[in-house]
Amino acid sequence: MKIIACIKQVPDSEAKVKAENGQVSWGESPLVINPFDEYAVEGALQLKEANSGTVTALCIGPESAKEALKHALAMGADEAILVSDAALHALDTQGAARVLAAAINKIGGADIVTFGRQTLDDGSGLAAAQTARILGWPLLGLVGHMEIKDGGVRVSRVIEEGRQIVSAKMPAVLSIVQSIGEPRYPSFMGIRKASKASIPVWSLSDLGITAPATFVTRGELITPPSHEVVCEIIQGDGPEQIAQTLADKILAEKVL
Amino acid sequence: MKTFVYIDHFKGEVQQASWETLGVAKSFGSASAVIVGSGLEALTKAAFEFGADEVLIAEDPALMDYRVEAFASTLSTLASSRMPDLILFPTTSRTRELAAMTAIDLNSGVLVDLTGLSRNGDTLVATRPIYEGKLNETVVCSAKPVIATLRARAFPRPAQDKSKSGTATKVEAKTDSPVTVEGYEVAEQAVSVTDASIIVSGGRGVSNNPSLTAPAGMDDKQAEIWRAQQGFKLIGELATVLGGAVGASRAAVDGGYIPYAHQVGQTGKVVAPDLYIACGISGAIQHIVGIRSAKMVVAVNKDAEAPIFKVARYGVIGDLFAIVPALTAAFKKRLGK
Ligand SMILES: Cc1cc2nc3c(=O)[nH]c(=O)nc-3n(C[C@H](O)[C@H](O)[C@H](O)COP(=O)(O)OP(=O)(O)OC[C@H]3O[C@@H](n4cnc5c(N)ncnc54)[C@H](O)[C@@H]3O)c2cc1C
Ligand SMILES: Nc1ncnc2c1ncn2[C@@H]1O[C@H](COP(=O)(O)O)[C@@H](O)[C@H]1O
User: Fold this and answer.
1) SS3 of A103, please?
2) Residues B159 and B75 reside in one and the same domain
3) What's the CA-to-centroid distance between B291 and ligand 1, angstroms?
4) CA B111 to each of CA A124, A242, B150, B248, B269: distance values in angstroms, whole numbers, following the listed order
């Protein structure tokens, strides 16, 4: 079966992110594959192992985003494609979904396309649903477990109320969450393979589209007030006394 | 300004942040509550009581189960005929998908997980946290209708006026969906950490009670989970006394102690309670990004160097198995329970 995993590159979560001249800056911190998208790749690889097939990692981003694609290759993806075009500098989520849908079509479609739950930069957790809607494919969101059965896909969705078991015909779009299992570490062989891989770069004209309209635009960046807190350590004679002091302090703060 | 407010619910059980969203809509002009599903009388009544000017209800037995495609078609058909200026949702995992698809149908954009929304003439200016709350940005949507989801507990909840009532207007329900719901493995209780005003969370430390002896016949992993579940009982008792929800670190979730829906942090939920009590949680950055908006953090940890103390207002350096039950008892007494 044919599987595509959509991934994005974002600043590492340890990065100190700041506003600098109206732009987001993360200093010297590395860019990494979006942590949620590691689950998208892991899910795609699990599907491949259970059903045989190929995994293609797909990313829209600048040339430097090839590093994120190499991570997916090192984890075990068979090929990677970067969509990059100067006309995409102001992409919003529905725009990204339109470009992803066009790229998926150019790849020749797929049986399953996997997404992460959300991107950690300015992401919004919309792209999987929007891409599914544009393609006209079913969306199986927040997938924690999946199996291919009778030409369809059956999944367990991790929702606040427990698990919802749903099924749909393929092709389908899945967003994958952490319950699928830890993303595998790139193997030594995988890293070597990835470092030698050549990653094709597609422009919008390769996809046969023009830049989608942007509806959502940023006004300004605001640095949130830093909420430095001084921690008061509660001490006392044994747990009861500590607990009583702590309860009184909490009640005095009137947060309850 | 004419606003649709989507009332999010699971089989009639409302997501409380829906009412906060209704309050925001009212402040801009007329607010139509939109309710999609089946068996919705109680919700309709509540929507009027929380201030809806009208309630539009798309009811069909086929919409008993939430299936995003059908719900989105219902909403976008309704919006195409009634042309609201703004469609608001409370942010939940359901509404992210729903708002996303509705926006594609209506050829507009979505302003997601807002912590602020204000009107500047005809323009709506939204504020949202980005980069895991390290920055905020203002955003506008140039297409109509503007579609936005509001973060739970970021806006005031309007008062419920039990004397208000009204008659819902029935609207067309679209039921086509390519997805078949086969069933549920339902949790004992729905977990809504994003809506909670108090959260008591447990981490890996919750499994670490050496004085507990697991029942015979368990292997090490089973014994660890068993011990952790005893620990989470204590966490749950404190949460119950405070009227709060139970949260967890990823280590606790990965350890199999508690389901993923409880997880707070980068790959879990971002929460904004008034009070967050972290027990046996070290305070890794990926956990902290989930609790930045908590008004007050309290930490119980036996390691004085644990980074969680850096974000805590009060801390106890000690064994959670001694402190947590004592705290439950202390609150019981003070809150008269
Ligand atoms: C991509 C990525 C995403 C992640 N997303 C998340 C996320 O969403 N949420 C999240 O929480 N983590 C997340 N993590 C994991 C995070 O880095 C930490 O590993 C995790 O938060 C640790 O959980 P913990 O604090 O429970 O466990 P530990 O770090 O092991 O801490 C346990 C603490 O319990 C204390 N303790 C032990 N016994 C007792 C006792 N008897 N009484 C009192 N204290 C005791 C110890 O002193 C220690 O501080 C993520 C990591 C990555 C790489
Ligand atoms: N630029 C991109 N390239 C490829 N996939 C993306 C891109 N942006 C978002 N995605 C996918 O869509 C998911 C949700 O993204 P978002 O809606 O931006 O939060 C991510 O986890 C990725 O799987």
Assistant:
1) helix
2) yes
3) 14
4) 8, 45, 9, 28, 19
CA–centroid distance for B120 within its chain: 29
CB contact under 8 A, A124 and B253: no
B29 and B91 co-located in one domain: yes
Amino acid in position B10: F
Distance A181 CA to ligand 2 centre (A): 20
B210 and B305, same domain (yes or no): yes
**B149 and B80, same structural domain?**
yes
Distance CA B334, CA B337 (A): 8
Answer whether residue B180 is part of any domain.
Answer: no
Q: B73 and B111 in one domain?
A: yes
What does the pLDDT look like over B34-85, one tens digit per residue? 999 999 999 999 999 999 999 999 999 999 999 999 999 999 999 999 999 9
Question: Which residue has the CA at smallest separation from atom 7 of ligand 2?
Answer: A8
How many folded domains does chain B comprise? 2
pLDDT category at A256 given cuts 50, 70, 90 is confident
Of B96, B180, B317, the CB nearest to A233: B317
Best probe residue, ligand 1, of B287, B298, B310 (max atoms within 8 Å of C-beta):
B287
- Domain containing B283 equals 193-334
Question: Is B23 within the bounds of a domain?
Answer: yes
| Ligand 2 lining (C-beta closer than 6 Å) | A 6-8, 34, 36-37, 40, 58-61, 93, 96, 100, 115-116, 118-119, 123-128
- How far is C-alpha B15 from the geometric centre of its chain's CA atoms? 7
Do B141 and B10 sit in the same domain of this protein? Answer: yes
**pLDDT of B279 above 90:** yes
Mutate which of A8, A13, A182 for ligand 1? The one with the most ligand atoms within 8 Å of its CB, which is A13
Is residue B181 included in any domain, yes or no? no
Nearest CA in chain B to A179: B260
Domain edge (last residue) among B170, B204, B235: B170
For residue A229, is pLDDT > 90? no
Q: How far is Cα B71 from Cα B62, in angstroms, rounded to an integer?
A: 11
- pTM equals 0.93
Domain ranges of chain A: 2-207
Compute the average pLDDT of residues B88-106: 97
Across chain B, what does the average pLDDT equal?
A: 95
Closest ligand 2 atom to residue A127 Cα is 17
Q: What is the pLDDT of residues A3-39, one digit of tens each?
A: 999 999 999 988 999 999 999 999 999 999 999 999 9
Helical spans, DSSP H, in chain B: 17-28, 41-49, 68-82, 93-106, 220-242, 250-254, 285-288, 320-334
Kindly report the CATH number assigned to the domain that includes residue B156.
Answer: 3.40.50.620
What would the pLDDT profile of A161-193 be if each residue is shown by its tens digit? 889 999 999 999 999 999 999 999 999 999 999
Residue B143 contacts A where some CB pair is shorter than 8 Å: yes
Prediction ipTM score? 0.94
Peptide bond into B145 cis (omega under 30): yes
Structural domain contains residue B183: no
Does CATH number 3.40.50.12160 belong to domain A2-207? no
Asked if residue B140 lies in contact with residue B80, where contact means CB atoms within 8 angstroms, the answer is no
